[in-house]
Fold:
Amino acid sequence: MRLTPLLTHLAALCISFSSAEVWSHAKTDIVTVANGDQITGAVNAMTSGKLSLSTDYAGIVNIKWREVRQIESRYIYEVRLDDGERMYGRFVGNDIPNQLTFQSSSVNRQVDIDDIVEVRSIENELADKLDLALGATVYADPNTQTLVLNARGQYDVRGGRTTFQASINDTRTSIKSSAEELPCDCPENPDGGTVDTAEATAKKDTESSNASSFEISREFWRDRGTAQSYRVLNARYETNDELGIAHRGSLGFGFGRYLINDLGNELAISAGLQGVQERRKACDDQEGGSGGPTFIEDDARETCNDAELFLNVKWHLYSFQNLDMDISLNGNTYPSLSDWGRVRGDLKLLINWELFDSFYWTVDAQTIIDSAGDRDDNALSNSDYTISTGVTWRY
Structure:
């Protein structure tokens, strides 16, 4: 179990680093905002109610979507509407209030700005399609050192999207044992035996806890018409000392659907089947708790293959009226089909609330559960979680 709240680290050394690179086409797009200003750059995407524009003179500029009045571009974009329809084409300037002109197959179509929930740039070059972010965080105090590395990326093509993420969490904790019985040649003990003394030097041990995960997901959308439904392919690899996971890999396929698809509120679910391979001490079903089996050789493990269902729920709520609020929730449940009675799951919550311009209060919470996580070893846990909170500055 790893808990990293803000108060715990007020006296700690805290170093964080993050970077994000977005490659885009030539910076010739023109965006007109509510006050009449025109900004020239390259439109990267519109997600979470903000339009990302790459410029030569100010780097990446994020414009609130409600402030956008017109877009002109000669490059291809995918536009997703709140009814699920996806269109491919170019933005063409016009003088119609609150509407954008979208040219698809040489046919112009007027679209209400409020009906657009996402804009994606469909590039030709590999480097232009890839959006990559890297980050590292270090926490250190006299007793605990934590290193967190993470990476996430997105690869957009027409008709689909590939997302991937990776994280490594390494925590080392120094623990002082209680006073030891040490040899003593003193008046109270003339025979030179041992004596229990509070002044004896305590032994200092180091406990290490590691967790890592690597995940890639591919969504396949329909080319035309209402595309509220989609197909999804998932692959994942993870380890976790707290749950006794030395190796677990999974590959699954299923179907998903948007239940809510509005500007500011999105809810999607997906479900399917997946195969899982992991190393554990025995592949047969076993009963957990104190009545479970006892294993003498900790390193003796078997490679086990199982089948599972998976159910995913993704909810994204964002508001940009006065102060920005962005809430993202991603939950997964994995009932086993071959290891009957076993259920796994994970939940990730990310909250960003704008305090003032460019500064946000961030809460990042993640939890993992496994009903059979402790059945091989009663010293293990069937749940693990991390919580971090603090102030984030965005440029």
Remarks:
- Confidence is low (pLDDT under 50) at residues 1-23, 286-298.
- The chain has one helix and 25 strands.
